[in-house]
Write a structure and sequence with these properties.
Helix content: 40-55%
Strand order of the largest sheet: 2-4-3
Protein name: 9448_t:CDS:1
CATH class of the largest domain: Mainly Beta
InterPro entries: PemK-like, Plasmid_toxin/cell-grow_inhib
Structural class: alpha+beta
CATH architecture of the largest domain: Roll
Number of domains: 2
Organism: Diversispora eburnea
Pfam families: PemK_toxin
Strand content: 5-15%
Distance between the termini: 36 Å
Largest sheet: 3 strands, antiparallel
CATH topology of the largest domain: SH3 type barrels
Number of strands: 5
GO molecular function, one term: DNA binding
Length: 147
């Protein structure tokens, strides 16, 4: 086992119990116990975030003012669609809000690119869409949804 050393204080009583349970492998026992506790804490935080997201979603569904705004927005973009800009710059560094897209015949891209999901745009279909250049595969779309 490789790792870092740490000095830990135990009361005499706790140390004696630890030696009885773990025997000579106290470090391994303590490491496993700490890892288990950290994993449990991470799961608790994940569940707490999930509950907050659910509560926020439920509050938004009940928010009449927000619902009206969303209806107005839907009507405003009825003749358009949401476009995501792409760039060929700095494709080696893909941030959390970006998705790498390979330059393949299917994508129709000349160079490796990345979607910039933090800059969505409303596009008028009649004025801006001239021809289909390529298609994003299922993997790219799933990554875009995650980002």
């Amino acid at each position: 086992m490789t790792g870092k050393n740490a000095n830990i204080y135990f009361s005499e009583k706790t140390y004696d119990r630890l030696r009885q349970v773990a025997g000579p492998k106290i470090s391994r026992f303590v490491n496993e116990a700490v890892e288990e506790k950290l994993q449990k804490k991470q799961q608790e935080q994940k569940e707490e975030l999930r509950q907050k997201l659910i509560a926020g979603y439920q509050a938004n569904v009940k928010n009449k003012e927000l619902q009206k705004e969303l209806e107005i927005y839907d009507e405003a973009i009825a003749d358009g669609l949401i476009g995501i800009p792409m760039t060929t710059k700095d494709v080696e560094n893909v941030r959390l809000v970006e998705v790498f897209v390979k330059n393949t015949p299917e994508t129709g891209l000349d160079y490796p690119s990345k979607l910039q999901l933090n800059y969505p745009r409303t596009i008028d279909k009649e004025l801006r869409l001239i021809e289909k250049l390529g298609i994003a595969d299922k993997e790219v779309m799933e990554k875009a949804v995650e980002a």
